[in-house]
């Protein structure tokens, strides 16, 4: 995308229509830290802005966004996983207070999803956002039938985790 005004309009559209999706992805990869979620969000938006130069429209915009955000979060996680991942008590208390506005069921679902591996998080998040198996397949590079099987197994695992 060579035209800067078109790139800016598309980026504005993404910020308006897709910020919730980007925030959900960042939330799941932030390990409960609001500061880390905000940092991931900024990093995702920066990578989206830069990546729009190369966006050709071969894939749906939402598919491209998922791929960009998940790659950003996984890369950031790997980069920072070598550092100490403990959370200061004051920050944990602030996060707990901030999350009180979310329904308990939603907090529990996010907690359980947070226990999954990176690929499974991405798959179930896309499924919860009502992406088709074909769209999930395109983002993950897995065959459509593999995606369907993984979703079934992920749902079974989430049920087991919630019952334990």
Question: Which secondary structure elements does this structure contain, and how are they paired or packed?
Answer:
Elements: H1 4-17, H2 19-29, H3 34-51, H4 61-80, H5 89-98, H6 104-114, H7 118-128, H8 133-140, H9 144-163
Helix pairs in contact: 2-3, 2-4, 2-7, 3-4, 4-8, 7-9, 8-9
Describe the structure.
By secondary structure, the protein is mainly α. 75% of the residues lie in helices and 0% in strands. The chain contains 9 helices and no strands. The protein has helices at 4-17, 19-29, 34-51, 61-80, 89-98, 104-114, 118-128, 133-140, 144-163. α7 (118-128) crosses α9 (144-163). The longest helix is centred in the middle third of the chain and has 20 residues, at 61-80. The radius of gyration is 17 Å and the shape is globular.
What is this structure, in a nutshell?
75% of the residues lie in helices and 0% in strands. It is mostly helical and 164 residues long. Helix 7 crosses helix 9.
Structure keywords:
75% helix; globular; 164 residues; single chain; mainly alpha
């Amino acid at each position: 995308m060579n035209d800067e005004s078109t790139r800016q309009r598309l980026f504005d559209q993404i910020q308006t229509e897709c910020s919730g999706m980007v925030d959900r992805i960042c939330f799941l990869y932030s390990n409960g830290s609001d500061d880390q979620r905000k940092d991931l969000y900024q990093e995702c938006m920066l990578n989206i802005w830069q990546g729009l130069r190369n966006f050709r429209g071969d894939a749906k915009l939402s598919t491209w966004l998922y791929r960009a955000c998940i790659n950003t979060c996984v890369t950031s996680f790997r980069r920072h996983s070598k550092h100490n991942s403990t959370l200061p008590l004051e920050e944990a208390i602030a996060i707990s207070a901030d999350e009180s506005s979310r329904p308990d069921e939603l907090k529990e679902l996010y907690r359980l999803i947070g226990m999954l591996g990176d690929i499974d998080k991405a798959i179930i998040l896309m499924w919860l956002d009502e992406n088709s198996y074909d769209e999930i397949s395109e983002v993950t590079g897995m065959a459509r039938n593999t995606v369907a099987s993984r979703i079934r197994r992920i749902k079974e695992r989430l049920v087991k985790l919630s019952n334990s």
